[in-house]
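Thread title: Can someone regenerate the structure for this chain?

I was given the following input by a collaborator and told the matching structure tokens would be attached. They weren't. Posting the sequence so someone can regenerate them.
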Amino acid sequence: MKSAHKKEFIMTSTCNFGRTQLHCQRCRDIGTAGQHWRASHQIMYALPDNDDVNFQCPFGMSWNAQESEVKLIGDILKEVTSALGIPTCASCEDRREFFNAVHLLIKNKLREYGVIRG
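Best answer:
Regenerated them for you:
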């Protein structure tokens, strides 16, 4: 049962409403490693689905998510601007590619330092 004093997991920098997607693969690992990772966060945060360690992702990420399921920030920005009806131009595409490259660079560095796996 959720504790009233615990911060919601999806509000933390670890989940960040599914925006950064740096931990999605680890979180969605249905195996023992993923369960342990989620349980370690359950100590301090209220997990979705009534604090169930095997919660369904509120952002639709499937169990055992593959790298291809994780969206890069540049692609997310493109989806948002398109949804707002903002036309895409050459600069927009350059910006999308830049943000995707930065996203991957950060993700790879975090893997290198053991902050994330996968």
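The chain has five helices and two strands.
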